[in-house]
Specification:
By secondary structure, this protein is an alpha/beta fold. The chain folds into 3 domains: 95 residues, Beta Barrel (OB fold (Dihydrolipoamide Acetyltransferase, E2P)), CATH 2.40.50.140; 143 residues, 3-Layer(aba) Sandwich (Rossmann fold); 51 residues, no CATH class. The chain contains 11 helices and 14 strands. The strands form 3 sheets. It has a 5-stranded mixed barrel. The chain has a 5-stranded parallel sheet with strand order 7-6-8-9-10, sandwiched between helices. Strand 8, helix 6 and strand 9 form a beta-alpha-beta unit. The protein is rod-shaped, with a radius of gyration of 60 Å.
């Protein structure tokens, strides 16, 4: 409200918003009374019990979805939005969907079976399999006269007419229907013609759908080697088969959509893959051409390679000849220096300058006169020739032999 003293419309709008926020969609049960249908197709009625009543409206699109006739005095369960009709300031329920009430014993039986099978592990999410993304064939278990079959076939044909569809006819209502569905399910597995199976049926009361609440069918669904998608009834209908199947779809049409990849989407993906492949192939080809150019630049003609080797050999030969001459000159210079040094140490050169070498009888060079004995024979080498002498006493005449 925008002012301290709101107008009537502001007050009612605030109340309406508060109600709709406080009470989202919920289920409420009661008896239908004061039922009327407007020319527009909308239904107006009162939902009451022994202590209270509330006005309800069900608009044409919602009322048309009912597959059973709504009558005065029916016990129903309505899924409704709590709201306020502002023009009249009237509290009312806006009914979205409805199911028949007064089915307590059957519903209790449903809950007990669901609880027991859940304890047995039949609903374990870890055991469930995802339907194949691209099935090669799709099987449909339903009645040949069911409207659900037409909806499924129409949807599969629209989304991807290239996928083969095999129909396994079964009764979907009445005594023995669950067992016959279980037998056909086993037969479909034995024939192994499909990659995924659809178990479908249109909406109805809990009695109409009871075949899908039988234990035999639930166990057959878990025993199936082929993934099974259940599309039974309307979005608000739940059966034991929905919990036991690998996937649950809210309607038969939704089940068909779940397992059939749309042809347009596949073609778009195929076109994108083709573009990516073409782009990658072109890129690889361009890389290969660039690599080929690089290799071509490195490729040398054999004659040119031989000429290159000849030039290299010539350069090496020149360097070797220069090195040899240089080393020879160095060796000659060193030899000359060694010759000069050796010449300076040559005894013959010393003798040529007037020196001599005297050795005793054992050939030892004499360097000390005191070490010779009288009468010892000595040999003296001169620059040219040698003389022999005998050591005499001091003053005695020496003898020499040239």
């Amino acid at each position: 409200m925008t002012s301290a003293v709101p107008s009537v419309s502001e007050l009612l709008r605030s109340v309406r918003d508060t109600l709709e926020r406080r009470f989202p969609l919920l289920w409420v049960r009661g008896e239908v009374s004061n039922l009327s249908r407007a020319a527009s197709g909308h239904c107006y009625f009162t939902l009451k019990d022994a202590a209270a009543q509330v006005d309800c409206v069900m608009f044409r699109s919602r009322a048309a979805a009912l597959d059973w006739p709504l009558r005065e005095g029916d016990q129903v369960e309505a899924r409704a939005l709590v709201t306020l009709y502002e023009p009249r300031g009237r509290f009312q329920l806006n009914v979205e969907s409805m199911r028949r009430g007064g089915l307590g014993p059957l519903y209790e039986r449903f809950l007990r079976l669901k609880e027991r099978l859940e304890r047995d592990g039949l609903f374990d999410p870890a055991a469930k399999r995802a339907p194949p993304t691209y099935p090669r064939a799709i099987g449909v278990l339903t009645s040949l006269h069911a409207a659900a079959l037409r909806d499924v076939l129409t949807t599969l044909r629209r989304r991807n007419p290239a996928i083969p569809v095999i129909v396994y006819p079964v009764p979907v209502q009445g005594e023995g229907a669950a067992e016959r569905i279980a037998v056909m399910l086993a037969r479909a597995n034995a024939r192994s013609e499909c990659d995924v199976l659809l178990l479908v049926r249109g909406g109805g009361s809990i009695e109409d759908l009871w075949a899908f609440n039988e234990e035999a069918l639930a166990r057959a669904l878990r025993a199936s080697a082929i993934p099974v998608v259940a599309g039974v009834g309307h979005e608000t209908d739940f059966t034991i088969a929905d919990f036991a199947a690998d996937r649950r779809a809210p309607t038969p049409t939704a089940a068909a959509e779940l397992v059939s990849p749309p042809r347009a989407e596949l073609l778009a993906r195929l076109a994108e893959c083709s573009r990516c492949l073409s782009r990658d192939t072109r890129r690889q080809l361009e890389y290969a051409m660039q690599a080929l150019d690089a290799l071509a630049r490195r490729l040398v003609h054999p004659a040119e390679r031989l000429r290159s080797y000849e030039r290299t050999v010539g350069q090496l030969a020149g360097r070797l000849a220069f090195g040899f001459a240089h080393n020879l000159r160095l060796a000659q210079g060193r030899l000359e220096r060694l010759g000069i040094a050796l010449a300076g140490l040559n005894p013959a050169a010393v003798l040529a300058r007037g020196y001599s070498i005297t050795v005793d009888g054992q050939g030892k060079v004499l360097t000390d006169a005191a070490k010779v004995r009288e009468g010892e024979r000595l040999r003296t080498t001169l620059a040219r020739g040698s003389v022999e002498s005998i050591v005499a006493a001091p003053g005695a005449a020496g003898q020499a032999k040239a």
